[in-house]
Structure formats: C-alpha cells, structure tokens
Amino acid sequence: MDTVSMTVLVQERGAVEGVGLSRAERVARGKAARARVPRSSHAEFVRDSAGPSPLELLARQDESRIPDLVPIRYGRMAVSAFTYFRGAALPMAADLAATPRGGLSVQVCGDAHLMNFGVFASPERRLVFDINDFDETLPGPWEWDVKRLAASLEIAGRSNGYPTKRRRGIVVAAVAEYRRAMRAFASATALDVWYAHADVDMVRTVYAQNLSAASRKKLDGNLARVRTKNNLGALRQFTEASDGGLRIVSEAHRVVRVDEIADPGQDPQELRARLGEVLAAYRETLEPERRALLDRYSYVDLARKIVGVGSVGTRCWMVLMLGVDNQDPLFLQAKEAGPSVLEEFLAPSRFDNAGQRVVTGQRLMQTVSDIFLGWVRVAGFDSQSRDFYLRQLRDWKGSAEIDGMLWPNMTDYGRLCGWTLARAHARSGDPIAIGSYLGSASVFDEAVAEFAAAYADQNERDHAALLAAIASGAVRADTDT
Fold first, then answer.
1. Cα four-point dihedral sign 220, 226, 227, 233
2. Sorted alphabetically, which InterPro entries does this protein's record hold (predicted)?
C-alpha cells in the first residue's frame, strides 16, 4: 500500500493525521495550508445574513429538550453577554463555518470557552488541569476551538471591565501560548505528547508565578475546597436518611427525584429493574478492572439534575450507589448526548451512539479521564430512545472564578488554557503541520485577537436580541431560583 493510501485508511479509522508521512512532508503540509489560507485571514468575521438567526438556531435545539426547563436556559443566558455566549455554541458553530480554515483537522472540543477548562482528580489522585466539557466534540478544524477560546476571553474581559488594550493583550497571550506549545509538541516524540499534562504543581510553577501573595493564598484555598468536592461531599449535600437508608433530596427544579417524574402508576420494582438493565449496559463500556470496581456498588436512588448553561433542558441524571455502608457512596452523572452542534457544518460522527462520540473524544483529548467514563442508550419515560454518557458526579472538580478576576491573573489563566488546548489537539492532529502553519511570528495571534473583538461585538448584539425577545414575550425566560 502506498503512503497516501495508508494515510487515508488511518484517517478513516479515526486515528491521528500525518501517519506515514515524513517530518519534511508534514512541514510541507503546514506551509501549503498557509499558502491557501494566510494566517492574517483569520481576523475576518462577517456573519452570513442569509442564514438563520441565533434565536432561530437556539429554538431548534429547544425542540428536543424538556419543555419546562427551556425557560431556565434562557434565564441563565440572559444574565450577561458572557452567559449568553456560554449557551450559544450552536450559533457560533454556524458563524465559524464561514470563516477561513487551513484543512488540518484534529479532535476538537467544539465548545472550548474558558469556563470549560478546570481541575479534577486523576486516577492517581493528583489534581490536573484540562478541558472538562466534551458534549460537542468531533473531528474538525483546530482553528474553531482556538477562536471560541479567544472570543470567550475577550467577552469575559469586557464583563470584568478590562480596558481594550488589556483585553487584547490577554487574547494575544493565550493564542501565542497555543502557538508556542504546538510548535514545541512538533519537536516532541509521540509518547511525550501523549504523556504531557498540567498538574497543579506545574500550574503553580509556570502560570501562577506572577500572582500576588493574596492571590496565591486564594488559589490554595480554592484548591483545598476542590478536594472536598468528592462522593462524600455529594452525600452530605444531596441525600437524607429515609427508612433506615439514604435517598436523594429534591431541591426545587434543580434536583428532582425520579419518583416525582415517573408515571405515578409505575411499579417501583419495574422501574428498579429497568435501571438495573441500564447500568448493566453501561457497565459493558468500561474496562474489565473498572467493571469489577463498579460491581462493588449497588443502586440506591436516582434524580434529575440541572447543569451548566447551554445544557439546561437536556436530560441529566444523578445516580446514588452505595458500597459496604452509607459512608461508601458513588455518585454517577448520566448526561444526555445528542449530535454535536458541529455536525451540521462538518461530517456526521462516525459513532451511532452520541454518548460514545463524547466518551471517545474525551479520552482522546484529555491526558487522564474519569475511571467511570462510559456510555449507554436508554428508552426514557416517554419511550424515546436517547444516548447518555456517564462519569462521576464530583471527583475533585473545580473551575476558575472568572467574575472579578484581575487582568494579570486572567492573562496567566488564558495562557494555561491555550497550552492545554494545544496539547489536546496535538494528541489527535498533526502538530508538525499545524506548528509549521502557525510559524514563529505573531501573525496568527494578532489575527485571532481581531476576530475575538469583532465576535464579542456580535455577541453583545445577539445578547441584546435575546433580551428584546424576552421583553416582548417572544421568548420565555425564568429566573433560576
């Protein structure tokens, strides 16, 4: 088989790009992409006026969501231009589809805004920093993730009142870090790229060195609190004693027990049997040693839970399981997975199960993933078949406090996100070709900063349109109380 045919075959199987090509050939791919799509062209942003409006795109997503929860989604998005942006992954995907792309693909996050990065526990019980949301992951243009991250930094900077020069500096620093990291990964071995990660010690050494003593103390306090966000912490927050055992406690609309949602006439034993079948199917997607660990736990209770901004209205469940006693809990989160928002503008996922799409993308992009990460297909109470992916509800998970963050800290945080995104892309893409495309100059960095500013302007107009629609009654929004 010739090199070109082998490379095509590898790509069709969903593996990394560039396999079978020499370093010189991969460098040439990057330079050819630069000739087709100059780096300066990434400054461009003009929305296609012939396409559907953002509100029309969002309404299309509402059709598959829980009707009673959709107004809460809009209520959360209405709070600020930044919360609107967090919930508007589909409108931005539509906008990005019309922007320049060099033709070099990676496994993209699809929603790489700065709040979708954070810390969590590795299986070795170390705190690591990584991307932590993969609902929209799909093979696609690496530029789209970079631009969504850059736009989120610009929009968050405006929300925090940073002046224009500071905001541009933050965005340029983050994109430059992505570029430098990708070029460094281009010189590394495949194994070194695969093993690269950002644990808390590395974050402190490289990205938090400019923090003031007060900021360092605050960071250490936040990390200490993150370590309390575990299964025992969830046990204290979400459960109560009942008939000698435990059950999940409902909390307004945020947490709703399953027996408050299911058909009142449904036999509890029948429901438990169905849930047992679901857990058995999910179990088969785990590695054998992790199945053995899951088998130590038994199902106790189930509740629906609202999460995030953009995910409000999708079906998300929290599952309480217990081991030897009431102090040995395991909380799993089962989150509905539908088609990626990118699939309308790129090729459809090669996975029939959208939960498997999410899990595979997450395992490919993250250095380490939750040991209980798996997927399942379920027939719901309305008899509709839906896909879900499962992981632990809480395992030392935490994210940065963006509101009120000082601009030097935002600069360091943006750089950390830029490095992390480059590492995630380098695992599935061709870092040599992408690094060659980016080059050593700051042309791409400055261009993306221009794009981010233009997109932030558009985002403010879109947020204003949502507020107007709410005021007119065209869109119903509920406060999240």
1. positive
2. DUF2252
Let me know if residue 477 belongs to a domain. Answer: no
Last residue of a domain, which of 392, 412, 432? 392
Instruction: For residues 149 and 57, give the distance between their C-alpha atoms in angstroms, rounded to a whole number.
Output: 21
Backbone angles phi, psi at 397, to 5 degrees: -85, 135
> Taking CA 148 as the corner, what is the angle to CA 218 and CA 442, rounded to the nearest 5 degrees?
90
Q: Tell which residue, 262, 256, 375, has the closest CA to residue 318.
A: 256
Cβ atoms within 10 Å of 306's Cβ, excluding its own: 21
Instruction: Please list the rounded mean pLDDT of every run of 10 residues in the chain (481 residues).
Output: 36 58 95 97 92 95 91 95 97 96 96 93 84 96 98 97 97 98 96 88 74 75 77 85 85 84 67 81 94 94 86 88 91 93 95 96 94 90 84 83 90 95 97 98 98 98 97 91 56
Range of the domain at 270: 231-392
Strands 138-141 vs 198-199: parallel, antiparallel or unpaired: unpaired
Please identify, among 344, 368, 392, the residue that sits at the C-terminal boundary of a domain: 392
Return d(Cα 418, Cα 450) in angstroms, integer. Answer: 17
Judge whether 358 and 382 are in contact, CB under 8 Å: no
Q: Which residues pair with 136 in a beta bridge?
A: none
Are 321 and 298 contacting, i.e. CB atoms less than 8 angstroms apart?
Answer: yes
Alpha carbons within 13 A on the beta-carbon side of 221: 7
Concatenating the DSSP letter of every residue in 249-312 gives: PPBTTTEEEGGGTS-TTS-HHHHHHHHHHHHHHHHTTS-HHHHHHHTT-EEEEEEEE--SSTTB
Do 322 and 413 lie in one domain? The reply is no
**Domains: count for the chain:** 2
User: Which tokens sit at 181?
Assistant: 């990291």
HSE at residue 140, side-chain half, CA atoms within 13 A, is 27
Residue type, 396: W
List b or e across 383-406, with b for residues whose CB sees 16 or more CB atoms inside 10 angstroms: eeebbbbbbbbbbbbbbbebeebe
Domain shared by 372 and 404, yes or no: no
The reply to whether 57 and 162 lie within a common domain is: yes
Residue 361 and residue 159 in contact, taking contact as beta carbons nearer than 8 Å: no
